[in-house]
């Protein structure tokens, strides 16, 4: 189990994220906190693997959380949840020691896969990857509704159609090969195909 703690002063958002993550069998939400101070008090007696934190919080903000958590032995890995695709903020979080940076309006599976990557130590922290989380897609709503494909899955499907290997896709999207492989298996299941040839044919039929 991946033990997770969440700090965000927007209660509805925090509860929504917690509810989403609790649907994953390997995630255990250990606590939800409205500021960094409450989180640190909790960590005095409970160990977690991953901390999800907003940057703007009362009492103790995300910057203070990252700095304080890095003093713990062993310390949990930190994923920043942010409203801003701002490179200066991203670089500051990276310099402080955050392991990942996810936009709050990213697809849910972006956060789920990022948590697993960070836990496994395979996450690639790259600002271009953050920008991709915020890109609109003309077909996204259509295929998300029809096939339950996420934005990331649509990106990967297009690249596979272009003939890219898992390694090629991983390099282009700044993902680990393991994560791309997991996405591909989900895409196969959602589209009801069992081979690359069928997958490409389906992508062509979808006019991707």
TrEMBL record:
<dbReference type="InterPro" id="IPR039420">
    <property type="entry name" value="WalR-like"/>
</dbReference>
<feature type="domain" description="HTH luxR-type">
    <location>
        <begin position="142"/>
        <end position="207"/>
    </location>
</feature>
<feature type="domain" description="Response regulatory">
    <location>
        <begin position="3"/>
        <end position="119"/>
    </location>
</feature>
<dbReference type="InterPro" id="IPR011006">
    <property type="entry name" value="CheY-like_superfamily"/>
</dbReference>
<dbReference type="GO" id="GO:0000160">
    <property type="term" value="P:phosphorelay signal transduction system"/>
</dbReference>
<keyword id="KW-0597">Phosphoprotein</keyword>
<protein>
    <submittedName>
        <fullName>Two component transcriptional regulator, LuxR family</fullName>
    </submittedName>
</protein>
<keyword id="KW-0805">Transcription regulation</keyword>
<dbReference type="Pfam" id="PF00072">
    <property type="entry name" value="Response_reg"/>
</dbReference>
<dbReference type="InterPro" id="IPR058245">
    <property type="entry name" value="NreC/VraR/RcsB-like_REC"/>
</dbReference>
<dbReference type="GO" id="GO:0003677">
    <property type="term" value="F:DNA binding"/>
</dbReference>
<feature type="modified residue" description="4-aspartylphosphate">
    <location>
        <position position="54"/>
    </location>
</feature>
<keyword id="KW-0804">Transcription</keyword>
<dbReference type="GO" id="GO:0006355">
    <property type="term" value="P:regulation of DNA-templated transcription"/>
</dbReference>
<dbReference type="InterPro" id="IPR001789">
    <property type="entry name" value="Sig_transdc_resp-reg_receiver"/>
</dbReference>
<keyword id="KW-0238">DNA-binding</keyword>
<dbReference type="InterPro" id="IPR000792">
    <property type="entry name" value="Tscrpt_reg_LuxR_C"/>
</dbReference>
<dbReference type="InterPro" id="IPR016032">
    <property type="entry name" value="Sig_transdc_resp-reg_C-effctor"/>
</dbReference>
<dbReference type="Pfam" id="PF00196">
    <property type="entry name" value="GerE"/>
</dbReference>
